[in-house]
Specification:
The structure is a single chain. This protein folds into two domains: about 40 residues; about 160 residues, no CATH class. The chain contains seven helices and nine strands, in the order ααβββββαβααβααββ. With about 200 residues, the chain is of the alpha+beta class. The strands form four sheets. The protein has a three-stranded antiparallel sheet. Strands 1-2 form a two-stranded antiparallel sheet. It is about 35% helix and about 25% strand. Strand 1 and strand 2 form a beta hairpin.
């Protein structure tokens, strides 16, 4: 698992490099002038050894977050220094046609969920059902009419991820903020989506 996580991290760094190179080629601007820098990188769907309080005692646990991500509170020593005063940034992606959210972790998450919160809205339709549901539609054009450019490896890749295939992430975010395990910081609107 550690090797897989390391590979994924290295892969994201290479994608960032190639984006910089593509922008330099297309815009004739140096990557230094473009200012593309990773703001935040976090693993999800992974198990990690962590210290948590169980029954009043600190214990080393293997915490597996599937469909979840860390939501550590402010001042936690494992939160990166740049965010330590506000808490662990939590990115909750929505779908490619509506919005996503940035939240921060809380003390309540540490007490109730081993410092975890959800990692997304969750599907309403299977990939196969989504493909059937959008027969005769052009999802790329629908998104473009809403100001969202989408590129995918294939038409199937795009249609199986159509916005209606997912729950409304705002409802999910309201649930986790209502439960007190994360706090809302920002709502993000997609302008470009790449589906691999």
């Amino acid at each position: 698992m550690a090797a897989g996580a390391n590979f994924a991290f290295a892969n994201r760094q290479m994608i960032t490099h190639w984006v910089r190179a593509a922008l330099e080629h297309a815009l004739k601007i140096s990557p230094k002038d473009i200012g593309i820098a990773p703001v935040y990188d976090v693993c999800h769907n992974i198990a990690k050894f962590e210290e948590h309080i169980v029954g009043g005692v600190s214990r080393r646990l293997c915490v597996h977050r599937k469909g979840a991500t860390r939501a550590y509170p402010p001042k936690h020593p494992e939160v990166p220094a740049a965010y330590r005063d506000i808490g662990q940034p939590v990115i909750i992606p929505g779908d490619m046609g509506r919005y996503s959210f940035v939240l921060v972790g809380t003390e309540k998450a540490m007490a109730e969920t081993f410092g975890s919160t959800c990692h997304g809205a969750g599907r309403l339709m299977s990939r196969q059902k989504a493909k059937k549901a959008c027969r005769g539609r052009n999802i790329e054009n629908e998104l473009l009419r809403n100001g969202i450019l989408v590129r995918g490896a294939s038409r199937d890749t795009i249609v199986e991820e159509m916005p209606e295939a997912y729950k409304d992430v705002a409802d999910v975010v309201d649930a986790v903020t209502g439960a007190g395990i994360s706090k809302k910081v920002a709502k993000l609107k997609p302008i470009c989506v790449i589906k691999g």
